[in-house]
Amino acid sequence: MAPMGIRLSPLGVAVFCLLGVGVIYHLYAGVISSRLAAFRQRRKVDLRDLLAVSVEAAVLGGKEVKKVREENGLKEKSKGKTKEGANELLTLGDLQSHRKMYNLIRNTFPDVVVNSEEHDDLVDKAATWSRDIPADILDKIEGGRNVPAESITVWIDPLDATQEYTENLVKYVTTMVCVAVEGKPVIGVIHQPFTGSTAWAFVGQGSNMHARSSYSISPPNVIVSRSHSGKVKNFIHDAFGNSTTITAAGGAGYKVLSLLETPARETGSIDQADVYIHITFIKKWDICAGAALLNALGGHMTTLKGENIDYSGEPLNKGGLVASVGVDHKAIVEKLPSWDPEKH
Ligand SMILES: *[C@@H]1O[C@H](CO)[C@@H](O)[C@H](O)[C@H]1NC(C)=O
Q1: What is the DSSP string of 45-75?
Q2: Contact 63 CB / ligand 1 (< 6 Å)
Q3: Which positions are annotated as binding Mg(2+) (predicted)?
Q4: pLDDT in tens, 288-300
């Protein structure tokens, strides 16, 4: 009698084994990745350390910006045009500064998302934090405010006001770092490479800057972009009357500084404005640090409709901008004529 048996074809066995391996791999990969996610979730970042790193990054980036300008080696090229047709420039200053700032922050806090205005594949493992916390930060800010790494989005602008940088209008140039926690701006650093001063703030904790003791709002002195069309002038005259003073300046970082008290040694080197308005699209790395500084000093930076801006996700803010400190922000927003930045 022939034995009862199952004939196994070699091909069938091979397919079966492959399927088995596939299933096991699938299950196992799932376990590994969920373990990793759980591990990452437990990673905490001390925000005072992150503030100190942000200051160091802005200062180091600023040194590059200054060096390239002084060596006259800008090597500028166009990145394309903005929606309003202004040329968007990239110089060696932007790039070198980006490399320093981005690598320093990424190497120190590898679990934190860092969004920079510039991109570059150069990885510089040597950029490490000195672990020095400046005395004025130690003085004003308590350590130990830990937040999960994945709740943080860092925005860096390695060179704000590139157009003015190429024109050698260096007072407008800044390097900026902003730390948003769950989309809210919490830490802001605005460094001026050509004066050497650094403004920093940690919302709810402290700042080395102050609001001025008084502001005018009827009418205010309104600071706007140098590269804007005439439309912003009509917008502002509509809002506050035809006698409103309009100051045109480069750089979003600089414009926020113009709302604050100017340190004595810089008297005359920064314009003094009461309100900052922008009526077209603007990127979050341009404005997040200023938003944190203003918030820390009791001020506000919102869209033209008065809405808060979320500093996570997409880099483009499409709602325009109105920023103030030491005044009734809501009253200013209410004066603004209706305007849709998406249509301009
Ligand atoms: C302001 O100027 C515009 C045009 O220049 C004019 O149409 C408008 O009537 C002026 N508004 C006031 C309140 O004077």
Answers
A1: EEHHHHHHHHHHHHHHHHHHHHHHHHTT---
A2: no
A3: 117, 157, 159-160, 286
A4: 999 999 999 999 9
Q: Do domains 44-207 and 210-343 have the same CATH topology?
A: no
**Tokens 């801006």 sit on residue:** 309
The structural domains of the chain, with segments of one domain joined by +, span 44-207, 210-343
Give the ligand 1 atom nearest the CA of 237: 1
Check residue 1 and give its pLDDT: 47
Q: Which residues contact 344 (CB under 8 A, 6 or more apart)?
A: 83, 84, 231, 279, 280
Q: What is the Å distance from ligand 1's center to 326 Cα? A: 29
Pairing mode, if any, of strands 184-191 and 174-181? Answer: antiparallel
Q: Does domain 44-207 have CATH number 3.90.180.10?
A: no
Query: Ligand 1 atom 9: the closest Cα is on which residue?
Result: 242
| Torsion from C-alpha of 198, 202, 206, 210, nearest 10 degrees | 50
286 assigned binding-site residue? yes
Whole-Å CA distances, 258 to 125, 162, 233, 292: 37, 18, 19, 15
**How high is the mean pLDDT of the chain?**
89
Q: Is 11 annotated as a binding residue?
A: no
Name the residue among 276, 282, 277, 246 with its Cα closest to residue 259: 276
Any known ligand binding at 159? yes
186's torsion region: left (phi>0), alpha (psi -120 to 50) or beta?
alpha
What is the dotted CATH code of the domain comprising 210-343?
3.40.190.80
Q: Is 13 helix (H, G, I), strand (E, B) or coil?
A: helix
Asked whether 34 and 119 are in contact (CB, 8 A), the reply is no
Rounded distance from Cα 234 to ligand 1 centre (Å): 9
234 lines ligand 1 (CB under 6 A): no
- Cα–Cα distance, 32 to 154 (Å, whole number): 27
